[in-house]
Specification:
The complex is a heterotrimer of chains A (about 475), B (about 110) and C (about 475).
Chain A (H helix, E strand, L loop, with lengths): L2 E12 L24 H4 L8 E2 H13 L3 E2 L2 E2 L1 E5 L9 E5 L5 E9 L4 E13 L3 E3 L7 E4 L6 E7 L6 H17 L12 E11 L9 E6 L2 H20 L8 E5 L4 E4 L12 E2 L6 E2 L2 H9 L5 H12 L3 H7 L3 H14 L2 H18 L11 H12 L5 H14 L3 H8 L7 H14 L1 H8 L6 H11 L6 H13 L1
Parallel strand pairs in A: 13-14
Antiparallel strand pairs in A: 1-11, 1-12, 3-7, 4-17, 5-6, 5-16, 7-8, 8-11, 9-10, 12-13, 14-15
Chain B lengths: L4 H10 L6 H18 L22 E2 L20 E2 L2 E4 L16
Antiparallel strand pairs in B: 2-3
Helix pairs in contact in B: 1-2
Chain C lengths: L3 H9 L7 H13 L9 E4 L2 H6 L13 E5 L26 H8 L3 E6 L33 H8 L5 E6 L5 H7 L2 E4 L19 E6 L2 H11 L29 E5 L9 H16 L3 E5 L4 H19 L18 H12 L2 H14 L5 H23 L4 E5 L15 H6 L5 H6 L3 E9 L2 E8 L5 H17 L1
Parallel strand pairs in C: 2-3, 2-4, 7-8, 7-9
Antiparallel strand pairs in C: 1-3, 4-6, 5-6, 5-10, 9-11, 10-11
Helix pairs in contact in C: 9-11, 9-12
The chains are: A alpha+beta (about 475), B alpha+beta (about 110), C alpha/beta (about 475).
Chain lengths: ~475, ~110, ~475
């Protein structure tokens, strides 16, 4: 029997707002525990929610960016359950009348472009954090995160492979990041994913029983856990048994899934409209206004960069990885005038530096103008290409300009024949055996001599000039 | 409409209340009596989808910086039954799989 | 004791020491509140030494020096806020309710917190974890509820005014039982920020005064939009007492037949009829009207109120504040033990009923239908007011104050006491109870209901009624 995998994703995304969804506390990640709290998000008796306008705007923006229908009226509802990081004993969310429905996100891979339908986007408040291993005799609760604005993005079950799920998440993250809606940082918890997985016989229309996979900390965990779950369900179905609807927790350390089944199986969340909040009513002009302000999304940017700058697909894919990188590239091109060298410098040396110091390109302290200067200094021979990359590294570490570094460290490329000759002579003298070998026909030793001379010059010699000088000297 | 003792116990679990045998007996009777009275609602014919609204017609939205967090007279954590090193401390959930650090929603 | 406005004026003019009215109130409180026969109206109050040390400013506040009491489900700084429950025993909120802030800003002195049915659930104040309150008119009887302590405090002359809360009649009914004035504003007129929620779409802060004028003074000070309450409405606050001298001439008073049926005690009926006659004599036009969906009102009320309450009380879990029972082995047991020990019988009953009404299987049948019934009840009022009626007049309660202990065992009987008052909460309308007579030595209250935002008309009618009753 051939089984088709069916995957749907529920993604919770923290919105990049200054304040929480229903109160004015800050939303800074990593603040001292329980320092960003007030009567409202603590659920003190008598406290009441007041909606955050910025959160609404960002939620609408996200929904528009995902091509959703944004509804003019949506309703906040209470979802009831007991947990220590849920101060009111209910979460304020949206249930039967969400902010937006029926969107789509296109996901490109090498093989194909898939359209993944978005079932809904709704607003809700985040819960706090329960930390189980901090105190020996209990659970520690930090409510800084309680009340932070979230959007929940639910897809239709349109994904068919774990790899597709991963690709979808990457594209979703990028799209949201382009819109400035969220930091989308899974490590910091500003993006969280649950996966719904089911199998059905190839060609069947009805969906199989789905399970929910939680506790996923990375896109790779999503992919790997789905693989494990598909394997598990396949084994069950092949044995002629039925898959039980349940929730499973992924254990990252040993790559296994653990069932969460506890004595209270079903959760009756008893949703009802929150009587403390009137309906959210959006004027059409407001939605249109936000739509007009939508930044250029990755798909459009990709096309435009390929057309305007005549770059190939692979180059562009790297450059549009983030909005700030794409902005950086375009700013650099505007200064240097040529797209291909700009692309090469960014794709190669600049991204290498960014990875080395674990920062994003815009946080390196090397604005486009500074990189453009360095590019010019390499072009005009002031430093060699190799030295130029070293200089870039020092620019990242010190924040100084290329010129400053070259001068201070004395790194400028030496092309003066007297200096070069001096090094050449020294190398020839110290390597008489190799000279003999060269002169007896091993002409590829030229590389060795160039290398030795470069070392002697501490990288400053102009390798092209050197090569010519050495050949001249050795041949005569 | 009458409610059985079993149903009362299920509802009590949802509400995190523990009832003694006689309490659950009494309460199922109380509630059955009340529900019988309340069943006058059963004869109601009202068109679907009519929402009854009170208060402002739309949710007010506050701009960033427009409303400061309510100044508190003393740290709210002063009232906590168990507060250590900046955290509210509670007994651990029975099965730790209950909710994870990423949001608690079971 | 003289009225609120004149006390404030005496203080502002320096005729009286600013702290004197409050000190006198504390002295009266100490005399009447405690002991086995005491009123037990106050759960917390200024001590004698605190009263002596009081520094009260006299600089122009509308309520300068006026001693007031606050129902113990309103958050105050400086006194605990227990909501009449064990689960909040000793709890001190770190913030204060908006209405309390506004009273203080106008110079009022908060003398203490008053007793109530636990979490405002009840009609007799016998559901308090801290003992019942006695009716100052007859100590063997209930003061009504849930704001029984506030009503008694004003009726006994301890304070000049008091705040309560009214979800299904919890200000008007005790006002009626104790022979004082109690008013519930239009839903959204007064901020609920800091009022511990019972039923969010029904709750309003209400006020007690010995006279209509006093109640109006308090409402005048606390009313108005509060950005911290998303259900408070941004409308200008008129002078509620503007029509105090207009009188009943030309006032069209509707009398709904559904409120004058068999449930009514004869003494109550007689007093209310007399009141209507007085209004007519003053020039009012009395008109019989019908509110046919009244028969659904109590059912709708109990479903909606308990559903919202079951949700509002979920936050009492022993985690962040209040009592905690940690004798169990894990979190689940902590929740159950804490809530089971912390909540009284009536609260549990309502939480269970409300939870049931919201469960997946029964949501539409109960909660859904109740909300729709609410729309019908409201439409009845709109039709009547739209047909030229200025205010409605009904008895506040079918009976006078009943004896302590008489109804506690029969919840349904207790609920039926609210039958005349719940409709104004369901429809969000302003309503007031004014003493209109006496039956068997016990006060009878008459209720006036006005259209939404019609507090000026409501007070016009109330002043006229009060005047007529006094003159009689």
């Amino acid at each position: 029997m051939s089984w088709e995998t069916v995957i749907g994703l529920e993604v919770h995304v923290q919105l990049r707002t200054a304040e929480k969804l229903f109160c004015s506390d800050g939303t800074v990640f990593g603040a001292a525990p329980n320092s960003q709290v007030c009567p409202v998000c603590l659920g003190l008796p008598g406290a009441l929610p007041v909606l955050n306008r910025e959160a609404v705007d960002l939620a609408i923006t996200a929904a528009l960016g995902l091509d959703c229908q944004v509804h003019e009226v949506s309703v906040f509802a209470r979802k009831s359950y007991f947990y220590p990081d849920l101060p009111k004993g209910y979460q304020i969310t949206q249930f039967s009348e969400p902010l937006a429905t029926e969107g789509v996100l296109e996901v490109r891979s090498a093989a194909e472009t898939r359209r993944i339908r978005i079932r809904r986007v709704h607003m809700e408040e985040d819960a706090g954090k329960s930390i189980h291993d901090r105190v020996p005799d209990g659970t520690a609760v930090d409510l800084n995160r309680a009340g932070v604005p979230l959007i929940e993005i639910v897809t239709e079950p349109d994904l068919r492979t774990p790899a597709q799920a991963r690709a979808f998440l990457q594209e979703l993250k990028r799209t949201l990041e382009y819109m400035g809606v969220s930091d989308c940082n899974m490590e910091e918890g500003s993006l969280r994913v649950d996966a719904n997985v089911s199998l059905r016989p190839e060609g069947a229309e009805a969906y199989g029983v789905k399970t929910e996979v939680k506790n996923l900390n990375s896109f790779s965990a999503v992919e790997r856990s789905v693989v494990v779950e598909v394997r598990r369900q396949t084994a069950i179905l092949e044995a002629g048994e039925e898959v039980v609807q349940e929730t499973l927790l992924w254990d990252e350390r040993d790559g296994t899934l653990r069932s969460m089944r506890s004595k209270e199986e079903s959760h009756d969340y008893r949703y009802f409209p929150d009587p403390d909040l009137p309906p959210l009513r959006l004027q059409p002009e407001r939605i249109r206004g936000l739509e007009a302000e939508l930044p250029e999304l990755p798909a459009r940017r990709r096309t435009r960069l390929m057309e305007e700058h005549r770059l190939d697909g692979r180059d562009v894919e790297v450059l549009i990885a983030s909005r700030s990188l794409a902005d950086y590239f375009e700013a650099l091109v505007a200064i240097v005038g040529e797209a291909k060298p700009a692309a090469n410098w960014i794709k190669g040396p600049l991204l290498k530096e960014a990875n080395r110091v674990q920062r994003s390109v815009e946080d390196l302290g090397i604005p486009p103008r500074a990189l453009a200067d360095l590019m010019g200094l390499v072009d005009d021979g002031t430093v060699s290409g190799t030295m130029g990359r070293t200089v870039l590294g020092q620019m990242a570490d010190s924040g100084k300009t290329a010129r400053q570094i070259i001068e201070t460290e004395g790194l400028s490329q030496v092309q003066d024949s007297d200096e070069l000759n001096a090094w050449v002579e020294a190398v020839i003298e110290e390597n008489s055996e190799e000279v003999e070998r060269y002169r007896s026909g091993e002409t590829r030793l030229i590389g060795y001599f160039v290398g030795q001379t470069m070392q002697k010059s501490r990288g400053r010699a102009d390798p092209k000039a050197l090569s010519a000088l050495l050949r001249n000297r050795l041949d005569n | 409409m009458s409610i059985t003792r079993e149903e009362i116990l299920q509802i009590a679990t949802l509400a995190r209340l523990r009832l003694t045998d006689s309490e659950s007996e009494d309460l199922s009777q109380d509630l059955s009596q009340i529900l019988e009275y309340v069943d006058t609602l059963a004869s109601l014919q009202v068109p679907e989808g009519e929402r009854f609204e009170l208060g402002p017609p739309e949710a007010p939205e506050r701009k960033a910086g427009q409303m400061a967090p309510d100044a508190m007279a003393h740290p709210p954590t002063d009232s906590a039954p168990d507060f250590r090193d900046g955290f509210f401390v509670v007994p651990s959930p029975p099965s730790l799989g209950g909710a994870d650090d990423s949001g608690g929603s079971p | 004791m003289t009225g609120i406005a004149s006390i404030a004026e005496d203080v502002r003019e320096g005729r009286v020491d600013a702290a004197e009215p409050a000190r006198a109130a504390v002295a009266r409180l100490r005399e009447q509140n405690g002991g086995p026969q005491g009123l037990n109206a106050f759960l917390a109050a200024l001590s004698e030494s605190e009263a002596l040390a009081l520094k009260v400013s006299s600089d122009g506040g509308r309520l300068s020096g006026v001693p007031v009491a606050i129902k113990d489900n309103l958050a105050t700084v400086g006194f605990p806020t227990t909501c009449g429950s064990r689960i909040l025993e000793g709890y001190r909120p770190p913030y204060e309710a908006t209405v309390v802030k506004r009273l203080r800003e106008e110079g009022a002195v908060i003398v203490g917190k008053t007793n109530l049915d636990e979490f405002a659930m009840g009609s007799s104040t016998e559901n308090s974890a801290y003992g019942p309150v006695r009716n100052p008119c007859d100590p063997t009887r209930v003061p009504g509820g849930s704001s029984g302590g506030s009503a008694a405090a004003v009726a006994a002359g301890i304070v000049s005014g008091a705040l309560g809360s009214d979800t299904g009649g919890s200000v008007r009914q005790p006002a009626s039982f104790c022979g004082v004035v109690g008013v519930k504003p239009t839903y959204g007129r007064v901020s609920r920020y800091g009022l511990v929620a019972f039923a969010s779409s029904l709750d309003q802060v209400g006020m007690f005064g010995a006279t209509v004028a006093d109640a109006a003074e308090l409402l005048q000070v606390v009313a108005g939009h509060d950005p911290r309450d998303s259900t408070s409405v941004d409308l200008p606050v008129p002078d509620f007492s503007e029509e105090r001298d207009t009188g009943a001439e030309g006032l069209v008073v509707g009398v709904p037949t559904e409120y004058f049926g068999d449930a009514l005690e004869p003494g109550v009926k007689a007093s209310c009829q007399a009141a209507l006659d007085m209004l007519a004599a003053g020039g009012a036009q009395i008109r019989e009207v019908s509110l046919p969906n009244t028969r659904y009102a109590l059912s709708a009320y109990y479903v909606i109120a308990t559903a919202e309450a079951s949700s509002n009380l979920a936050r009492f879990d022993g985690v962040r504040y209040g009592a905690r029972d940690s004798s169990g082995k894990d979190l689940g047991e902590m929740y159950e033990r804490t809530r089971t020990a912390g909540f009284g019988r009536e609260v549990k009953r309502r939480i269970l009923l409300g939870t049931f009404a919201l469960t997946a299987g029964y949501h539409d049948q109960y909660y859904g239908r109740a909300q729709r019934a609410r729309g019908l009840v409201s439409a009845d009022f709109e039709a009547v007011f739209g047909g030229g009626v200025d205010v409605l007049f009904t008895p506040t309660s079918p009976t006078v104050a009943f004896p302590l202990g008489e109804r506690v065992q029969d919840p349904l009987q207790m609920y039926l006491a609210d039958v005349f008052t719940v409709t104004a909460n369901l429809a969000g309308l302003p309503a007031i109870s004014v003493p209109v007579g006496v039956s068997d030595g016990l006060p009878v209250g008459g209720q006036l209901i006005a259209p939404k935002w019609g507090e000026k008309t409501l007070f016009r009618a109330a002043f006229a009624l009060e005047g007529a009753v006094e003159a009689a």
